[in-house]
Amino acid sequence: MQKSTESTDATSSLMRSIGAAAREASHALALAPRTVKDKALHAAAEAIRREAPAILAANARDVEAARATGRIASYIDRLVLDEKRVGAIAQGLEDIAALADPIGTVLADWTRPNGLRIQRVRVPIGVIGIIYESRPNVTADAGALSLKSGNAAILRGGSDSHHSSLAIHACLAEGLTAAGLPAAAIQYVETTDRDAVGHMLAGLDGAIDVIVPRGGKGLVQRVQEEARVPVFAHLEGICHTYVDAAADLDMARAVLVNAKMRRTGVCGATECLLVDRNAPDAYLPALVAALIEAGAEVRGDAAAQAADPRVKAAGPDDYGHEFLDAIIAVKTVDGVSGAIAHIARHGSQHTDAIITADEAVAQRFLSEVDSAIVLWNASTQFADGGEFGFGAEIGIATGKLHARGPVGVEQLTSFKYVVRGSGQTRPV
Amino acid sequence: MQKSTESTDATSSLMRSIGAAAREASHALALAPRTVKDKALHAAAEAIRREAPAILAANARDVEAARATGRIASYIDRLVLDEKRVGAIAQGLEDIAALADPIGTVLADWTRPNGLRIQRVRVPIGVIGIIYESRPNVTADAGALSLKSGNAAILRGGSDSHHSSLAIHACLAEGLTAAGLPAAAIQYVETTDRDAVGHMLAGLDGAIDVIVPRGGKGLVQRVQEEARVPVFAHLEGICHTYVDAAADLDMARAVLVNAKMRRTGVCGATECLLVDRNAPDAYLPALVAALIEAGAEVRGDAAAQAADPRVKAAGPDDYGHEFLDAIIAVKTVDGVSGAIAHIARHGSQHTDAIITADEAVAQRFLSEVDSAIVLWNASTQFADGGEFGFGAEIGIATGKLHARGPVGVEQLTSFKYVVRGSGQTRPV
């Protein structure tokens, strides 16, 4: 008991000082020109390439410990690094350096009748807290995206990737120093005391402006429930692909199989196929067969089961469920209205697609489905900052405030109004 | 005790049904074309002009009750309506109708190398909760701004303006009906049970997307502390005007007096004058004299007191204090660096101004002062959505997420990504 209180006090004090240092560093970062930020990123990339053996050795310790605690293969796969992955981390830093600097961009510029010139100018948010699980590359990605957008970062990785993250963070710190930026611009929370996360969610006395969780549903749920500061996140990606009666069957089949099966563990994977009840009779069997032949387990309603004997009966919980696996729910709906109603009820406002050749029907779907990303004749797996051209993303947000959809460097910024006058006073 | 529990249960149930109705109405509102929303606003304005006698009678009841409870004159002044003020409320609705419809605006539009066309399109946020005090006109303004931006509104006015707000709300409801919009698009919380506010702050089971408090510091503080949903607000407007050594004295005097004295009770009023220690000797006495002659009480540091015997000694609490009165704190600082440091320590990130003829010095101030609005050679009293050309505002926000500065119809919106393809699938 005594020990626990001491540990908590020490953690509380550590976290407060991390918060204060981050806030202090954020002022310098907000004013850092692009060249300086990019220099830090390039120097960090260089350090990561040079220190690859040390990073791999640290990672080997993490992997060994994770194996010893009986972690499953997919978990180990997210954790493990090899030379290629380390190279990709370094390349990722250079890619972020190559992005345009969002800070200082004039978003709007107008002059009032009284001669006041008003500009809306991009500025950083301030301090970003990132809480993540086993992927060590998040240390580099999240730190670099925060830096590029002029924000200080407080990184808290999972204990399973502790040594890997520390080794990568040392390279980021080296980059900051090389560029003359404060070391506190990217801090890694070194304590493995779980209370540290609670402190971050409470905002570190106002030092954290926004929290970004990266990880499984359990982590995101905890962050969303407990955070006293804004959160950019999505809890689930329950994505739908709706095949309309006016769809081209070949296109529908190709897009659907990609949307479900390209990668089944990503948040943009389609989890439910909706088929128009008025579609030609051949459509439902053809779509179901294509899914099954691509390796998916299909759980369908009566119509889907009638269309193919390999279809299992869907239970009520199969709709609105994020399988993150080679499983898909299938339902027949009454046209686009039925699809919109099903998505409103079961979706997660992440990403939903319609396949149709009818522009008016497509337009209705695009307008009425209230999701961060709505697609017409394209795979839901395009739900990704890189595919949007954002260069890199720190995650995908389903909230409607500030950031929605892929969260890239622009979404990590705020703005201010800069008003230039010549002595204007406001009339009474 | 029993009674209180019953009342709480009834309020809880009432608020849940208000939340559910607002969410339901928000779907219709999100799709309502401009003509329909404007029709509702015009019909509401017409109803307000026609029902002016009933509104004034309801207001007379409120004013009488407020006088009986001993409310002070400035409070009564905010509460009282007359024919001119009722006319202004109707005109306000028409002004909001005349604004461009923010919904559906394409904010960005680009095509990816694979042919996918991506648009970022403005959509409403959903449901706005507005909690306010004695000004009955907020009922109309807040309801209309929410409607114009395609959001459902849940309005909770102060008990002192209860009858006035109900009478105005009836006119808004008439307008909604005339346009064929759901009555739940703008709901007024009729119960005076104070628990209703707590329910709103908890978000009504996810039905409220954002809360906007309008009123004094006590209300805003409670909302910011207790709300479990995002809040657009400013707690205080501790605005500074910094007069640099390179300022034109006549301009500085005119802008400063306006910034402090045009209206002393608004959030954009300057509360502290910072004067460059290197300014010509004549500046400080001239600025202080101008303030005193305009009716201000000046509380200054040693230099200000030496400059004019009428200056009182400032206590430490006078810096960083929002007087909302004809009182100003004055401090001598070491140039623009000193001004920036003082504002970082004592300001509220609302609105701050520099008066100088030196563009480089101005640019430093505009870049480094981390406030929603920074002005060069203009009065801080321009901190207002109307003065920015937003047409109307629901308030001013000092947070950095989503809305910052004046909150007009555009700030009450979110966006979605609309992606149009021709069968694109994402490569592995």
Question: Count of DSSP helices of chain A?
Answer: 15
What is the spatial order of strands in the main beta sheet of chain A? Answer: 10-9-11-8-7-12-13
Determine the CATH superfamily of the largest domain in chain A: Aldehyde Dehydrogenase, Chain A, domain 1
Q: Give the C-alpha Rg of chain A.
A: 24 Å
The CATH first-level class of the largest domain in chain A comes to Alpha Beta
Secondary structure class of chain A reads: alpha/beta
On the 0-100 scale, what is the average pLDDT of chain A? 95
Write up this protein.
Two copies of one chain form a homodimer. With 428 residues, chain A is α/β, with parallel strands linked by helices. Chain A folds into two domains: 2-232 and 406-418, Aldehyde Dehydrogenase, Chain A, domain 1 (3-Layer(aba) Sandwich); 239-387, 3-Layer(aba) Sandwich (Aldehyde Dehydrogenase, Chain A, domain 2), CATH 3.40.309. Helix content of chain A is 44%, strand content 20%. Chain A contains 15 helices and 16 strands. Chain A has helices spanning 2-31, 34-50, 52-68, 73-79, 83-98, 137-148, 162-178, 195-202, 217-226, 249-261, 283-293, 302-307, 335-346, 359-368, 385-388, and strands at 106-111, 117-124, 127-132, 152-156, 186-188, 210-214, 239-243, 270-276, 297-300, 312-313, 327-333, 351-355, 373-378, 395-397, 405-407, 413-424. In chain A, the strands form four sheets. Chain A has a seven-stranded parallel β-sheet with strand order 10-9-11-8-7-12-13, with helices on both faces. In chain A, helix 13 (335-346) runs parallel beside helix 14 (359-368). The longest helix of chain A has 30 residues, at 2-31. The first copy, chain A, is globular and about 65 Å long. Chain A starts with a helix and ends with a strand. The model of chain A has no long low-confidence stretch (mean pLDDT 95). Chains A and B meet through helix 1, helix 10, helix 14, strand 13 and strand 16 of A and helix 1, helix 10, helix 14, strand 13 and strand 16 of B.
